[in-house]
User: Fold this.
Amino acid sequence: MNLALNAVAIRTLVHKELVRILRIWVQTIVPPAITMTLYFIIFGNLIGRRIGTMDGFDYMQFIAPGLIMMSVITNSYGNVVSSFFGAKFGRHIEEMLVSPMSNSAIIIGHVAGGLIRGLMVGALVTVIALFFTKLSVANPLITLSMVILSSIVFSLMGFINAIFAKKFDDISLIPTFVLTPLTYLGGVFYSISLLPEFWQGVSKANPILYMVNAFRYGILGTSDISIAYAYGIVLFFVVTLFSACLYLLNRGVGIRE
Amino acid sequence: MTALTIANLRKTYANGNEALKGIDLNVEAGEFYALLGPNGAGKTTAIGIMSSLVNKTSGNVSVFGNSIDTDLEAAKACIGLVPQEVNLNLWETVGNIVVTQAGYYGLPRRRASEQAEKYLKRLRLWDRRKDIARSLSGGMKRRLMIARALVHEPRLLILDEPTAGVDIEIRRSMWQFLREINEAGTTIILTTHYLEEAESLCRRVAIIDEGRIIEDAAMTDVLRKLSQETFVLSLGTPLASPPSLPGFDSSLRNELELEVALGREHSLNDLFDALDERRISVVSMRNKTNRLEELFMRLVENKQSVEGLS
Assistant:
């Protein structure tokens, strides 16, 4: 593999993704900011006042890390799935396929695009959260690494969704029927210690739980699960999903006849 | 040096359609090569495999000695592709499309911008560089796809029906541009429906039909097989009955249109001399059928008669 060529190709793809995100900022940046503001007002402020504390924190403080992570996850996923499927649908994916850039570079470039949008939206939601509550970061390294790794995991998932998608409906099925339920059940709004033991066990099969909790641990210093275990799970997903993406691209699934 | 080598290339799609049934092709470096054939003959599939957009079923393809099985990146780096259908990001600006494509081929941004400027100017699109591709006319989109394919200066340029749906003026200017590119050393493979286009540009031609190459020869040799052409002449004055033109097979389509079959033993001058003698004035003339169609029919008839004998 020509590393210099692929480095330039990745930079080019990342630049293109960044331009795309900023060009359609009304679609990419504004909606999650509005949605999360509503979450903070309704769940955090109005309902949260009646709930009181969760794991020793104000309810608003407790849900803030989860809401930040939720916005990172959905936007990373959404960016990659819409960008890659849009390129497939418009056939300008062929610009990449005919070029000598490697399949790994195509994946890395798109994932970087998902990461950029995820982090931009995450940063914006963090700023919005600061209007509603005080947040101090207990462990910056865990906070940053977990948000980056989670963004990568869901960017890769979005990439796989886009590979298999044949029409625009297909790119909204997974977010609607899989991603959103898993996010809501992933401990964003509650501590799983509130659940009966059986449902606590079920919840532990949800990978988003580990991401939300590890991220919350990075900010608040509290978690329902082991942080080391969370890293193990997330890294496992990164490696497995990247391998799956590469295998699918090498086989030409969904992109070559 | 051989620019492209294709050996026993086969492609069967998932629906069972056998698009290529074992084709062999050699294109020398510097060649201007035409790949002709009717719709569904396998031209676009062959091009798709050369440029890695279609997976082959079996066979070998090498581009300047780089096999697409073992040296795919090197093979791809040699190729510039202008596809049949517009595959531009219509919401992207003209300039960004070309610069981005250069980046995919490893050209750093500054060099990519210089190259984009060079080819957008040559293809008369520089003034539109800040416009989105959607705002371009059909001919401009075709020219943009050519600029995009050339931005990394490929050694082999493949054009899949580049002038389909393009008006004659733009078609002529594109022909001139392609001649210049070829004279500068770029090997060109062109697919087209128009024999005139291939005739005007290409020195060698392969004809593909039902997934098989049925002719692969110098353009002059192929054209020699057109032993007879039929012309339709529009007359200046009406004729009540067909004129007697010895040596020519002629008939009246209507009182103002005369159909004449011209064999290779006669030139157009002979025909016009005979018409002059009879004081028949001709306003215009055209081929009765597309010459490619005529040539193609002859080749298919030949192939069928050979198969019938064997």
User: Anything to note?
Assistant: Chain A touches chain B at residues 1-2, 4-6, 8-9, 11-13, 15-16, 19, 87, 90-92, 94-102, 252, 256-257 (CB under 8 Å). The mean pLDDT of chain A is 93. The longest strand of chain A covers residues 53-54.
